[in-house]
Structures are given as structure tokens and as C-alpha cells.
């Protein structure tokens, strides 16, 4: 996220260790919140043999998401809404909480549910089985040994007068909600014994301990701290911390699957629940195994049901005798992404511990001079190489130079021969970005009034906050740059990579993918905003010599989406490089048919189909901010083709119907995963984009052509089959720049011809100014504790202080800031866990900000957060001096 004026918000003064947080910025495109799934133990109870979800730690909040997930703003169930207003014996909130408890714990299957949810026939909730009331409040809940099955709802804390809570001897599972802590001051008697409950945070555990000391000693939960401590060609040695509940018989069951989400095959069990390890043997060499470990307790006095916990899960690979898999990760972070480098390195190192068949080369460039490094990471060992110095004779490279990328990829392949090679290109992402030269430096721009036009699309050229190498003041990776580097590293496509992963925004555009189709067997991209959660600790265990490129690509998009929530809507997909040619051919045929339709008067029909289609958010700097609709320039190829097919129909004589259906057929070759929902940066907006490959299609004519040219349609105006093209520099229209390259799709296809025919009056070629958002990446979920944040001013610095987090998993702190009344959070600085004070420079502008401290664990999950502090930044005017010119004769 950048300051509204494209200036740094605050610059840290003290040196510090980057924390485990990651986020992604997209030029002219929204992105942000970090959603990293935690490791090791699941929180969903799953029947043995059903699909398994992603790995989450027993003491951390789960953020696993469904493949398609939406959220609503409703806080009261559909049952409670019509029922509770008519039951006045207790408050409406308490009535709704009772309904939530019933629905969350499968009330229809309770052993005794007398009068529950019977509506007007029940005098009040006080007549419901197990409910005791006094003074208009619920004061007792006795539902022990009643067959409750499922999770306790957050509404469990909505009983301000509750004194007795008896829930023992049921099948309650999952993490107790944070709201359980709301009961500690009133409840005098509580029982949770013989369930499957756990505490996701130390705060919740403390609250449960106060309600019932020793409650954990009777819970059938998954084992903690699961690790793989030894790997051979045929076995994996598993270790874990036994659960506190070792009595009443039982054991740990161990199973595995060889495919993501596949059925678990039972392997064996331990002798009892005090066991702390298991040898998973009889395995195939060089195979990834998705391991599940759950706890079993038989029925016994006090619990008439046998219990099986949710499963602790992790993925690891047996050792192979074949050549290793090489992962080449390129991270040009000489910009605002710099603080997150250490977090990525930690996750890469962890992933290599779980897979002896993979080795990683990471080329990274952090902010500042003399810090471009090439790291070799394998078997959990990080080795800093001298390759950069030996090749370039310097220790600071411009990592947005395509020659550097080409060298890195070529060096990796020649130095570390591998059976498979995966390339991950990390960064902000600019997507469908032409090569542009001649733009002025930001600090030399004339102050034309037109420079303040709202909504000019973004171009990351010569702006200090650009997503490029700041040492070179405005360098960036264009699509042509990527093509040049990848061509050089693959012998012009004769030796393609197995997987090319654009861990960036906006790269799912057809023109981008077609440009790069020959350089990878499979390509992975997001069509719009990407969250760049970077779960390499999950990707790397999936990379084995026997895995196909398609299997590795599928693993990446699976773990990527499982690390997000519905607060982070996203589409990510993979497609074979060879399949991009028939997909593009189908789109070109559609472009030709649409030209025929225009010639016969179907302009309104085409425009209506476009308006009904799914757009990505390309105009968030203007009036279209956070709205997926025209005048955004990119729309989903699938939805557009579907609406065209419907609009023209089988009797169409222009060829549009047949061509649109051909596009739909070809897009079946694209494999995707989708999350829809309400992002926390815009919780009132539903982000429901589900399409995959995008097309450049600025087809909205509701604005005047002059206004669209100046403010919106810049990609369309420079989307031409020839280069160079002289274009207007939109921030200062009296200046011009040069577009140096044309897209292959425009040179070879018909889609650009259709777009230029769409506008009867040719538009002036125009490129835009820089604009992006980077909302801070905060993992939603349960917070362990609240920290106390204060600040003071010392000269031109702001000193912030906070108390240490008590959670033992805390690894680092982050200082966050945002201008008041906006959603634009920014991570200003990070500190190691030993540091609880930080001095930063005052902002350059006199604005009011909100400040917050967030504590995170090693894998980037928030475990504590501070109060919000309002800070009014007022810079003292600097002393003004007059300097006379030097005159030389």
C-alpha cells in the first residue's frame, strides 16, 4: 500500500529483523490481506476416508477456505430472526444465542430437545430443555450427556447472567470461540469434560482453565507439534507431542493419501495415547504423502460415545534416487516489499525440510544498496552463494533488468541439473504491461492541471514508489521483458520450464500468457488481484521427480487458495502452454465475428453482453474504485463468451454464436480455484469474480470518448500490432512517451482489430500514471491478547512503545499505519520479538493516521494486536535559506 501522494508514509530509523508477514501490491489493481494457513493440525472433524483440508496448527486460528466461498453480513440465523422477537422471557440476543447453540451442535439429533425452537407453542426459552432463567436472563445451561455434536458458536458468550454451563460428555469439537472468555466473570460452575474441544490461543486456554481447571485432561484432540524427523526412500519418521488426555484407553490412528484431497488410507495405530511418534513405512521412493493423525478414545464411564478427533495433517516426501526438482524463485524486492523477504525465506527453508528431493535457488534484492543475494536452500540449510559477485562483480543488481532474470534462470538450470524445474516470479505484478520509454521523473513533472485527473490507469514508470528497483528510479518488468528473459533461459522455448508461476497480480490476461506460452509446460496466474500468500512451506513438499507439471501446478493453486479466506476473494488458475494457442485462436475467431456483427448493427448487443460480464478491478484510482464493472478494461473471457452466445443465439448469421461457444469450449482447458466473498478492505462489496483468463475489452460507451481516452482507455489505445508507438503521457498530456513493443497476440490475431473498429474515431495512444494499493496483510481469526500501544514525538521522529506479547509463539512485531477514514493500511516497519520500541520518521504530509502494533508467529499468523492510536502528523517547517547563484566569468 502506498501513501495517497505516492510518498513513503514513514521511514524506520532503527535496524530491525523483518517479520513473518507477506502482502502483495498490484499496479492499477487491488490486492492485499495475507492469509497464511497454519501448520500441522486440522480443526475440522472429518470422517476417515473423506477429503482432507489444509494443514492448520492446533494452537492457531484456522483460515482454511472452501474452493468457492461467500460471506454475508447477517449476524442472526434465519431461525432466530422470526422466532426470538416473540419470546420475551429473555433478551433477544440471548434467545438468538440459544438458537445458534442448537444449530451449531446439530440440535435436531440431541437426545432431549424438548420445546427447543417450537415457536409460539413454547411460553419462552426458559421452557426449553436444559435452560434455566431468572430476572429475564438465562442463568443456567445444562446440556451434558445430550448428544451435542459440532462446534461451540461465537454466541456462547452472549449470556451476561450465566452462572452454570454444563456441557460434559458430548461430541463438541474444534476450537472454543474467543467469546467463551466473556463468561469467566459470571460462571461459577462449568464442565467441558469428555469432548474434543481445544484452545486456539493462550488467551482462550486461560479462560477455559478459569471456567474448569484441568478441562484439557479429558479432551480427545489431535496431537500437537507434528514433525517429520527422519526421511528415507521408504519411510517417514513422525513425532508429536502427546495430548494431555492419556487415560481411558485409546491411541493415535495414522493414515495418508498420495493425492491432494484424496481419501485417507489407514496405515496403523500407536499402542496408546502416550505415544509420541510413529514410523510410517512401506512407502514408495520420491512420493509426496499427505499424512493425517487423529486421536481415538473408546466409550467409557462418563462418555458413552467413542470419540475420534479431527486430524493433524502435514505433507512430506520420501527420498528419491532420481535427480532433484529445482525451484527457481525470483524476488525483486528493492521496494516496499523488502520487509517480507525474511518471512519468505523461513517458509522456503521449512518446506525443504519436508522434501529432500527439492532444492531452491532464491535470487532476492532487498531495499538499499549492496544486498542482492543468491541463496541455495536444501534440506533446511540456507547457503549464501557468491554467484552474483562472480558474474557481475558487484553486490547490487537491478533485479527488474531482464538480463539479470535471464542469467539467474540460466545459471540455475546449468549449475543444478534437475528432473523438473519450477520457476516462481514474485513481485507486485503489472500485467499486460508494454515497454515504455521517455517518461519524465516524478520530481520533474510539470504541474499541469491535467496531472490531477482522477482515475488515470496506472503505469509503473519513473515513480519512486513503483514496484521495481528503486535504485534505478522507475525500472519495472514489462511483458516484453519477461518474454526476453524466458526466451533466453529456454533456448527460445526449445527447453521449456515445467511450471511458470506468476506470484503476482494481473498476469492472467490472455495477451500476457500468449506472449509466454512457449517457455513453460504449465503457467499459473491470477486474472486480477493476487494476495501472494507465499506458502512455500506447503508448495515445496509437493515437488517430486515423479510429479507431472500439471500435478505440481494443481498443488500450487490448491495450497494457495487454502491459505485464504472469504475476506480475500481470488481466482488462481493453471493452463498448459500448448493449450494457449487454441484458446487464443478461438478468441481471434470471436474477434473476427464481432467485427462482422459491428458491420451489421449489433453494437448495442455487444455492449450489453460486455456490461453483464465479469470485470476485474482495473480502475480503483478513480470512480470505479473497488467496483467490478465498466469502465474496467479487462473482463472474463468465459463470461463474455457466454453472454454473447446467449445474446446472439443459434440462428445468428454473423458467426458470433459459434465463435463464442468455441471460446467456452477451449476455456475448459483452464484449471482454476475460486474464492468469492466480502474483502475486509471493502466489507460492503461482494467480490464475486469467478472467471479465469481475461480479455482486453474496454467496450463501455457511457462516457464520452474524450473522457474515456484521457482517464480510462489506455491499454486499448496502445494495443496495436506495430511498434514503436508515440503515446501521450497522461499525467502531463503535453509530454509524450514511446511504446517500444507490440504484443504477439496483436501482431498475429484479430482481437485488436475488433477493439480499434469498436471506436469509430481513433483514440489517441495514451499511457497512465502510477497508482496502486497495498492494504496490510492481517490474518483474520482469534487474537490471543491486546497489547498497549503509546507514542511520543521526538523532533522529526515518532517513537512508539508497546508491551511484550505473552504468547510464546510470537516471532515479530509490525507497526501498521493508515490515513484516518481510509482502508489503506500500511506495514511501516517490523521488529524482532525482543524489541518493543521503534522510532520512525514523521510522515512527509500533515495528515492524521491510525497506528497499531500486531504480533505474529513465525509463519505470519497474528497472535496479538494493540489498541488503535490516532496520531496527527504535523511537520515543523524547516529553516528557510536563500542561496545565491554562482556566477562564473
- As residue ranges, the low-confidence spans are 1-74, 442-473, 703-711, 770-777, 877-889
The overall pLDDT, averaged over residues, is 81
CA-based gyration radius: 29 Å
Please bin the fraction of helical residues: 10-25%
Core attributes:
889 residues; alpha+beta; nine-stranded mixed β-sheet; six-stranded antiparallel β-sheet; 24% strand; disordered C terminus
Would you give an account of this structure?
The protein has 889 residues and is of the alpha+beta class. The strands form ten sheets. The protein has a nine-stranded mixed beta sheet, sandwiched between helices. Strands 2, 12, 13, 15, 16 and 17 form a six-stranded antiparallel beta sheet that branches. Strands 34, 37, 38, 40, 41 and 42 form a six-stranded mixed beta sheet that branches. The protein starts with 25 loop residues before the first strand and ends in a 17-residue tail after the last strand.
What's the SSE blueprint?
Blueprint: E1 26-27, E2 40-41, H1 80-83, H2 92-104, E3 131-134, E4 137-142, E5 149-150, E6 164-166, E7 171-175, E8 189-191, E9 196-198, H3 202-211, E10 224-231, E11 236-241, E12 251-257, E13 265-269, E14 277-280, E15 288-297, E16 307-308, E17 312-317, E18 325-332, H4 341-353, E19 358-365, E20 372-378, E21 381-384, H5 387-392, H6 402-415, E22 420-426, E23 436-437, H7 479-489, E24 497-503, H8 510-515, E25 520-525, H9 536-539, H10 549-562, E26 570-576, H11 580-599, H12 603-612, E27 634-636, H13 637-648, H14 656-666, E28 671-675, E29 694-696, H15 705-711, E30 725-729, E31 736-739, H16 744-748, H17 751-758, E32 766-767, E33 772-773, E34 785-787, E35 789-794, E36 797-802, E37 812-819, E38 826-832, E39 837-841, E40 848-856, E41 862-866, E42 869-872
Parallel strand pairs: 4-6, 5-7, 6-8, 7-9, 18-19, 18-22, 22-24, 24-25, 30-32, 34-41
Antiparallel strand pairs: 1-33, 2-17, 3-4, 10-11, 11-14, 12-13, 12-15, 15-16, 15-17, 19-20, 20-21, 23-31, 25-26, 26-28, 27-29, 30-31, 35-36, 36-39, 37-38, 37-40, 40-41, 40-42
Amino acid at each position: 500500500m502506498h501513501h495517497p501522494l505516492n510518498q513513503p508514509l514513514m521511514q524506520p530509523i532503527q535496524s530491525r529483523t523483518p517479520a513473518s508477514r507477506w502482502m502483495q501490491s498490484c499496479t492499477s489493481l487491488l490486492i492485499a490481506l495475507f492469509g497464511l494457513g497454519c501448520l500441522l493440525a486440522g480443526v475440522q472433524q472429518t470422517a476417515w476416508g473423506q477429503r482432507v483440508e489444509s494443514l492448520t496448527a492446533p494452537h492457531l486460528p484456522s483460515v482454511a477456505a472452501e474452493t468457492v466461498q461467500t460471506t454475508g453480513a447477517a449476524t442472526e440465523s434465519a431461525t432466530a430472526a422470526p422466532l426470538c422477537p416473540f419470546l420475551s422471557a429473555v433478551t433477544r440476543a440471548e434467545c438468538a444465542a440459544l438458537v445458534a447453540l442448537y444449530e451449531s451442535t446439530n440440535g435436531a439429533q440431541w437426545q432431549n430437545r424438548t420445546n427447543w425452537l417450537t415457536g409460539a407453542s413454547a411460553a419462552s426459552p426458559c421452557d426449553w430443555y436444559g435452560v434455566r432463567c431468572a430476572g429475564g436472563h438465562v442463568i443456567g445451561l445444562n446440556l451434558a450427556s445430550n448428544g451435542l455434536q459440532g462446534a461451540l458458536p461465537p454466541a456462547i458468550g452472549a449470556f451476561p447472567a450465566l452462572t452454570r454451563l454444563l456441557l460434559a460428555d458430548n461430541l463438541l469439537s474444534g476450537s472454543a470461540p474467543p467469546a467463551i472468555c466473556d463468561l469467566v466473570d459470571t460462571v461459577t460452575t462449568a464442565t467441558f469434560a469428555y469432548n474434543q474441544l481445544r484452545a486456539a490461543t493462550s488467551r482462550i486456554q486461560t479462560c477455559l482453565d478459569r471456567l474448569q481447571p484441568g478441562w484439557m485432561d479429558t479432551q480427545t484432540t489431535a496431537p500437537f507439534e507434528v514433525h517429520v524427523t527422519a526421511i528415507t526412500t521408504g519411510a517417514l519418521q513422525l513425532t508429536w507431542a502427546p495430548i494431555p488426555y492419556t487415560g481411558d484407553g485409546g491411541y493415535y490412528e495414522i493414515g495418508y493419501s498420495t493425492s491432494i484431497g484424496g481419501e485417507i488410507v489407514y496405515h496403523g495405530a500407536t499402542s496408546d495415547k502416550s505415544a509420541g511418534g510413529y514410523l510410517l513405512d512401506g512407502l514408495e521412493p520420491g512420493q509426496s504423502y499427505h499424512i493425517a493423525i487423529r486421536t481415538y478414545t473408546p466409550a467409557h464411564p462418563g462418555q458413552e460415545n467413542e470419540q475420534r478427533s479431527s486430524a493433524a495433517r502435514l505433507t512430506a516426501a520420501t527420498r528419491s534416487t532420481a535427480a532433484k526438482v529445482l525451484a527457481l524463485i525470483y524476488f525483486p524486492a528493492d521496494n516496499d516489499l523488502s520487509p517480507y523477504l525474511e518471512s519468505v525465506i523461513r517458509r522456503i527453508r521449512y518446506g525443504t525440510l519436508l522434501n529432500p528431493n527439492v532444492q531452491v535457488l532464491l535470487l532476492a534484492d532487498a531495499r538499499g544498496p549492496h544486498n542482492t543475494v543468491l541463496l541455495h536452500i536444501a534440506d533446511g540449510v540456507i547457503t549464501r552463494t557468491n554467484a552474483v559477485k562472480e558474474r557481475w562483480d558487484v553486490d547490487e543488481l537491478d533485479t527488474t533488468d531482464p538480463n539479470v532474470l535471464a542469467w539467474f534462470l540460466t545459471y540455475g538450470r546449468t549449475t543444478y541439473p534437475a528432473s523438473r524445474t519450477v520457476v516462481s516470479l514474485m513481485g507486485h505484478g503489472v500485467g499486460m504491461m508494454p515497454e515504455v520509454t521517455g517518461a519524465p521523473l516524478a520530481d520533474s513533472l510539470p504541474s499541469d492541471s491535467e496531472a490531477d485527473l482522477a482515475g488515470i490507469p496506472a503505469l509503473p514508470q519513473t515513480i519512486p514508489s513503483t514496484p521495481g528497483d528503486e535504485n534505478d528510479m522507475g525500472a519495472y518488468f514489462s511483458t516484453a521483458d519477461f518474454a526476453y528473459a524466458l526466451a533466453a533461459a529456454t533456448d527460445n522455448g526449445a527447453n521449456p520450464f515445467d511450471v511458470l508461476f506468476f506470484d503476482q497480480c494481473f498476469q492472467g490476461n490472455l495477451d500476457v500468457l500468449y506472449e509466454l506460452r512457449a517457455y513453460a509446460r504449465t503457467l499459473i496466474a491470477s486474472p486480477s488481484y493476487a494476495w501472494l500468500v507465499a506458502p512455500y512451506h506447503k508448495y515445496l513438499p509437493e515437488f517430486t521427480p515423479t510429479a507431472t507439471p500439471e500435478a505440481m501446478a494443481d498443488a500450487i493453486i490448491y495450497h494457495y487458495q487454502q491459505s485464504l479466506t472469504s475476506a480475500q476473494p481470488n481466482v488462481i488458475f493453471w493452463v498448459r502452454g500448448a493449450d494457449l494457442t487454441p484458446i487464443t485462436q478461438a478468441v481471434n475467431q470471436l474477434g473476427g465475428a464481432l467485427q462482422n456483427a459491428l458491420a451489421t448493427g449489433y453494437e448495442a448487443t455487444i455492449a450489453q453482453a460486455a456490461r453483464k460480464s465479469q470485470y476485474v478491478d482495473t480502475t480503483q484510482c478513480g470512480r470505479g474504485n473497488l467496483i467490478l464493472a465498466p469502465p474496467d478494461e479487462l473482463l472474463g473471457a468465459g463470461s463474455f463468451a457466454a453472454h454473447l452466445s446467449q445474446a446472439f443465439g443459434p440462428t445468428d448469421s454473423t458467426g458470433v454464436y459459434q465463435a463464442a461457444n468455441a471460446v467456452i469450449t477451449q476455456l475448459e482447458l483452464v484449471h482454476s480455484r475460486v474464492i468469492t466473498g466480502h474483502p475486509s478492505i471493502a466489507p460492503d462489496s461482494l467480490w464475486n469474480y469467478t472467471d479465469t483468463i481475461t480479455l482486453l475489452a474496454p467496450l463501455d460507451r457511457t462516457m464520452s470518448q474524450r473522457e474515456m481516452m484521457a482517464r480510462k482507455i489506455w491499454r486499448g489505445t496502445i494495443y496495436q500490432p506495430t511498434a514503436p508507438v508515440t503515446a501521450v503521457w497522461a499525467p502531463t498530456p503535453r509530454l509524450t512517451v514511446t511504446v517500444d513493443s507490440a504484443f504477439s497476440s496483436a501482431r498475429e490475431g484479430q482481437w485488436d482489430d475488433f477493439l480499434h473498429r469498436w471506436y469509430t474515431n481513433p483514440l489517441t495512444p495514451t499511457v497512465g500514471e502510477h497508482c496502486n494499493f497495498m492494504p496490510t496483510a492481517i490474518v483474520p481469526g482469534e487474537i490471543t491478547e491486546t497489547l498497549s500501544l503509546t507514542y511520543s514525538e521526538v523532533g522529526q521522529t515518532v517513537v512508539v512503545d508497546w508491551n511484550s506479547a505473552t504468547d510464546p509463539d510470537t516471532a515479530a512485531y509490525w507497526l501498521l499505519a493508515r490515513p484516518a477514514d481510509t482502508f489503506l493500511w500500511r506495514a511501516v516497519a517490523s521488529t524482532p520479538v525482543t524489541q518493543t520500541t521503534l522510532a520512525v520518521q514523521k510522515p512527509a504530509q500533515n495528515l492524521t493516521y491510525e497506528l497499531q502494533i500486531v504480533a505474529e508467529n513465525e509463519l505470519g499468523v497474528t497472535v496479538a494486536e494493540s489498541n488503535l492510536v490516532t496520531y496527527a502528523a504535523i511537520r515543523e517547517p524547516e529553516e528557510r535559506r536563500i542561496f545565491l547563484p554562482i556566477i562564473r566569468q
